[in-house]
């Protein structure tokens, strides 16, 4: 299984509280049959006007292309529980999200994709967002075992629910992958269950 212990890269800051999943991925893109093209659509209506022109959203600015960390504020991912929201972020290139707080279902969906959702104080997030904006090439290092984010000789301590941290660092976050890797054991157990056997 894929263990997620350390993530390094540059960051893209998206400021504002209560950014819901409809803003992250507009509802009209939920009609996609697979998640393959979701990387085109995060924050689409905030990135482009009706004629397709850029509005200057961070996800559309050249200095943030290739970023693997997303810095956000409070209650990020609120609203509907659509899995498309973290799918679109992941397929754009986001490998971890650091914020003040997260909607619980959104955070759970991220974990199921191997994307850590880490929390810091408002002051810590403000510092990270300001640094990412002022010096977009700054590289950050996340260490899920130590619970730290390091940059330019400085280290901050983040929080993450222990069950999520364990799943990520031990490589058990992908429940589908676990079932497939243990298909024989799963089938054996299924045959012993009266409500499964015979189907």
List the strand order in the largest sheet: 1-6-7-8
* Number of distinct helices: 8
Summed over residues and divided by their number, the pLDDT gives a mean of 92
Regions with pLDDT < 50 over 5+ consecutive residues?
A: none
Q: How many beta-strand elements?
A: 8
Task: Please summarize the sheet with the most strands.
Answer: 4 strands, antiparallel
CATH structural class: Alpha Beta
In CATH, what is the homologous superfamily? Aconitase, domain 4
- What is the string of SSEs from the N terminus onward? EEHHEHEHEHEEEHHH
Rg is: 18 Å
The CATH topology, please?
Aconitase, domain 4
Helix content: 25-40%
CATH architecture call: Alpha-Beta Barrel
* N-end to C-end Cα span: 29 Å
Q: Which structural class do the helices and strands define?
A: alpha/beta
> Structurally, how many domains make up the residues?
1
Strand percent estimate: 5-15%
Judging from the principal axes of the Cα atoms, what is the shape? globular
């Amino acid at each position: 299984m894929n263990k997620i212990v350390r993530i390094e890269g540059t960051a893209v800051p998206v400021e504002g509280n209560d950014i819901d999943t409809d803003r992250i991925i507009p509802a009209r893109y939920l009609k996609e049959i697979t998640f393959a093209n979701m990387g085109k659509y995060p924050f689409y209506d905030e990135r482009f006007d009706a004629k397709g022109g850029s509005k200057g959203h961070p996800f559309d600015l050249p200095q943030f292309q290739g970023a693997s960390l997303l810095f956000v504020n409070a209650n990020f991912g609120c609203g509907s529980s659509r899995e498309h929201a973290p799918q679109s972020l992941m397929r754009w290139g986001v490998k971890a999200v650091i914020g003040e707080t997260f909607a619980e279902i959104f955070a759970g969906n991220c974990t199921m994709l191997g994307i850590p959702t880490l929390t810091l104080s408002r002051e810590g997030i403000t510092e990270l967002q300001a640094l990412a904006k002022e010096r977009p090439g700054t590289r950050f290092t996340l260490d899920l075992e130590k619970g730290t984010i390091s940059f330019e000789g400085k280290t901050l301590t983040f929080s993450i629910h222990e069950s999520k941290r364990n799943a990520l660092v031990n490589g058990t976050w992908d429940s589908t992958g676990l079932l497939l890797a243990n298909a024989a054991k799963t089938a054996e157990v299924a045959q012993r269950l009266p409500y499964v056997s015979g189907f």
